[in-house]
Structure formats: C-alpha cells, structure tokens
C-alpha cells in the first residue's frame, strides 16, 4: 500500500524540514505549505490523510484555519503550538482539532500521535449520507440495510468513502487495493468498479459512484 500522505502547514522552513525528515523516516509521504492560504489550497486539492498545523502562521490564525478545514473535511488535524494553557487547548479542540502538541516536542511523540490519529481513522465507521461503512466488522449498510460486497469491492468503497469527491485514478486504486501487483493492461480495476457501481445504483437509482472519463473514479460528495 502506498505511503499515507501528511500535509505540514508551517511557515518556518527549518521546522518544516525537520518535521518532513522525522515523518519521512517513519514511512509517511510529506507535503509542505508555508502559509495558511497555501495550506487550505493544498488540503482541498491533495486530500492528505492528516494535517499538522502550526498556530503561528503569518496570514491567518491557526484556529481560523481549523474552522475552514472543518467546513469541508473530516481529515485529522494535529495542532502544533507553544501556547500551553488549558483555555487554548479547549478552544482548539472545540474548533475541531483532533489533537495538539506543545512545542518543543520529541520526534517520537510526534510520530506516536500521528499513528494514533491515523489508526482511529481506519477503525471508526465511515458515513456518507445514508451509506455507512464499518471497517472493523467489514459491514456496509444503506438506510440500515446491509449491502453485500465482495472483499475487494469493500476495500475500494472504503478507499473512496474516506474522501468523497476525490477522483482516484485506476493506477491509484490498483496501488492501494492490490499493492501494485496487477499486470500491465489489466482490466481488473474496471471490472470491480463496474460491479460496485451496479450495486450502489441499486440502492437509490441515482448512482453514488461516478466516472471521470480519462481520469478515474469518485463517490459523489
């Protein structure tokens, strides 16, 4: 499976480089934005699995960034701050942050906090409208009725439902679900997508799965 993607929103380049090194050494793919505005753009376009957000950004208060991110995404957000007060922690969590780290912190603690957030994201139930997916029970329901999927159909739906609206290419789906072991020119992804599309269309007659011609597949967000 490809490395999980983390977006670091940090205006201090030296700190950003240290974070990139620590997280890369732990096996994550790291992207960097040097301002709140660039971070919001990267979060919307690149769909990271987790965001590390510095509070002391030059263009927006970190709390405002958390609120803006939460309007469109449930991505885990870990705030990095030097403000070690109870009121500040309560404020950040209330705005939608999932966790916070007080500067300075040890790299091992950073990686441990990241792993916890990503692990919770994997095990918690995922929902989009009336569609709910339980990764632990490997159960999919629509309006409380079970939807029977093959193991690979379940894995594909679990991938897509984490970020509704994001378009995944055939190559990305092959890398994530089959760990890149599909032969060149294989139509296995297309076959599974067609089967999944038919089952989802039977639910509402509308079609939750859409094809972006020449690009890939996405759930309608």
Automatic annotation (TrEMBL):
GO function term, MF aspect, one: cis-regulatory region sequence-specific DNA binding
Major location category of this protein: cytoplasm
Residue positions, PTM 4-aspartylphosphate: 54
Coiled-coil blocks: none
Location(s) in or outside the cell: Cytoplasm
Keyword Signal assigned: no
OmpR/PhoB-type domain residues: 123-221
SMART domains: REC (SM00448), Trans_reg_C (SM00862)
Response regulatory domain ranges (all copies): 5-118
Record GO biological process: positive regulation of DNA-templated transcription
Protein origin, superkingdom: Bacteria
DNA-binding region per Swiss-Prot/TrEMBL record: 123-221
Protein name (database record): DNA-binding response OmpR family regulator
UniProt lineage: Bacteria, Thermotogati, Deinococcota, Deinococci, Deinococcales
